[in-house]
User: Fold this.
Amino acid sequence: MVNFKTIIPNQFTLPRRINRLGELAYNLWWTWNPEAQRLFSRIDTVLWEKTNHNAVQFLKLVDQARLKSVINDRYALDHYDRILRAFDDYMKLKNTWYASSYPHNLDQPVAYFSTEFGLHETMPIYAGGLGVLSGDHLKGASDLGLPFLAIGFLYTQGYFSQHISEDGWQEARYMRLKFEELPVLPFIDEQGNPFTVTIELPGRNIEARLWEIRVGRIPLYLLDSDVESNSPGDRELTSRLYISDMDARISQEIILGIGGVRALRALGYNPDVWHMNEGHSAFMVLERIRELVAAGNSFEKAADNVRSATIFTTHTNVPAGSDEFPIWLMDKYFSNFWPQLGLERDQFIQLAHHALPWGETFSMPILAMNFSTKRNAVSELHGKVARKIWNFYWPNLREDEVPITHITNGVHTTTWLARRLSSMYDRYLGNGWKDHIDDQELWERIENIPDAELWAIRRHLKRKLTIYILERTREQWLHGGVHPVQVIASGALLDPYALTIGFARRFATYKRANLILHDVNRLMEIINKPTQPVQIIFAGKAHPADEPGKLIIQEVYRTIKKAEAGGRLVFLEDYDMNLARYLVQGVDVWLNTPRRPNEASGTSGQKAAFNGVLNFSVLDGWWREGFNGSNGWAIGDEQDRETNEQQDDADAESLYDTLENKIIPLYYQDRSADNQPGDWITFMKESMRTLTPRFNVQRMVKEYTERMYLPTER
Assistant:
């Protein structure tokens, strides 16, 4: 082990009285503490918004006069002191849930590997739900006090910025991230040299640098191949997420799996549990086997040792969604590796062999399943689907005996909860509710919240969303050189009092963003009723290589631009976590239309639910478990039709019928004397009461701990 460490750069000019703002900026704890965010905003609201809530960049740019005004303002100093006390209390807390529940299991950490982490909008090192789930997992582990660390990539260009052309075509724009303006810390030795690990690729060795992001109590270590000693091509290996080129893709996964293990070893870690979040990191098991074989163990003994300490979470519902590498590519990249395992070529290939109609492959999920002792899907239905998909790997077992369980995803409540609702929960649930989010009895107190107070907050949040969209649209008009019709399509005519539906997610074909366009004439009639208007806000990106997904965006956008839409259909470009928060907090209904059973879990509707937004979704993923008939609405039923066309017809009819005959009347009719929709509020409370305690990351991480981590721990 070499003595490497991270040090917060001395790049801020802060008055001594408030110099710990720099420390706060470099720990993402502030991203889920609304009062900490308000502290930065209090110093300079305009700059805080201009920097897109980037605390590091904010402190680099803030005017000294603003900082001096803080130290001369007693109330601002009280605010600063209060936040730093809360931060210190959080970081130093001894009796966390984990420490109190399992005081004798505090030795070595769980090592969590994921190819993407969605932590905050200023860190675009995530592509979608998998990354946001990974980020929420870290935050939940921090809150609960787990011994935990994570490994991923620091992509030099991150995920792309989306621009929609006048014709509705998605354009991907990449920009190089400025690490010095992000909350990432370089690992250096005592002489200030950067920490690197060496990874073998065909015909050369490459170096990967290591960085750290502090996520509350959890260290997230990120690998970066943009090192001067590497060739120009190798420096680009970690530039973007999910590179389509096969050589670059396998190189990325070698860096993550093999390089990740080597980085942890160099830092002195010997994790008790190794958690692969999806199969991208599965090469980690080969590196750990290599270590044990090099120490004198047989391959069989080494494999058993590695298997006993490894778990695997799958998020895909179709084999095509998994990484499969052709055998010739494995020959190219691993011909010098398998002898180090004590294996012949054919023995090595059999570790993850997958025979497909178009040829033989080396399957990353099969490698992960082969060398894990526990495996899980991410919802109940996904568990059934996964057992069916992978039954061939256990041919002697019945489908229901396939050893893949499920732990349904949850979300990190305080990251996604509106500040006003958080304050309301403080008043009616008690100040300690954040530590007991998964307590069903606690959420029975929702009934104590006055309807008028809850409805007033919901109206405020929708107005806030509308104002935010109008400001985005104004900026687009001022600086974007866009056509006036695009300004309308971006939300210039939104009504803060109309029933508002949100649809925001990755534009993959199975998610069917265009299902609501199945009968455009009927849709136009629905949204344009003078006394009961409806508006629908779309947002989301398609992967740059997903041509069908981009065509769906274009179809949606062209419909939005129609004059008869009246500005009530909107597409918001460049969807990120900041826009996601506004949407899950501000709309009335959250729409989800996947083709069953392809949605492994989905989590955006969970974020909407504890903000008082009602779900309207196909019975897939988490909603199949959450829906009870009185806390939202279902699209279709659990009957799967023979063809996609039949399924689309049936689901579209159900969508329109439910919208026309249930959702719209419930929102607009039977208003009280003070214009409150009493029955709608009853639905809202039922949704908050039944869904929040179940579909949160606190419950999820506890399940992982008790069902996966502790039974695996050596």
Summary: The chain has three domains: 5-92, 105-323+364-409+702-712, 417-695. The radius of gyration is 25 Å.
